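Blinded run. Sample ID left blank on purpose so nobody reads anything into the name before looking at the predicted structure. Input follows.
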Amino acid sequence: MLGSGRTVGLFVIGGGVLFACTGMVFTALTVRVSSNMASSWMVAGIILSLIIPYPIIRFGVRRFNRGRKILQELSTIKKQKKLLIMVKDQGQVNIHDAARALRVDSNEVKRLVYDLVGKQLFHGYINWDNSVLYSKHAVLLQGATHCPSCGAEQHFSGRGILQCHHCKAQVFL
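Blinded prediction complete.
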């Protein structure tokens, strides 16, 4: 089903080209069999063989291009979803690490983040100087530098977890 717009487009283009070729061959054979037909009829037949399938081929090209665009959009959505999951799971993600995981460059990660912010899907904090993305929950807990259990210092330990240095209590983001 995925990419079916491209497949349909290719079939329509192929059908249009086949129609044009058949029309030209039929015109050429008709003129050859009936030698009394003028060459102007042959030219007219060839022109009609090209004009009639033109809208069909054009429709196929548009359908193919639309299918390609949809695939590109789906690829972007998958990358954005993966980025959001990474930030949510880890609490904070280095942009360069995210770029490696998504197999894109850092500028593409920034573009994805801005797109997510524009769609109001990314809630958190972005520190461009340090190249770090923080989840909404990490932002809320970032100010709370003390453990809720013993009051000691806590820090991010990865995968969306804050861990206390003293009692080893873990706060899940």
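Unblinding after everyone has recorded impressions. Residues 1-72 form one domain.
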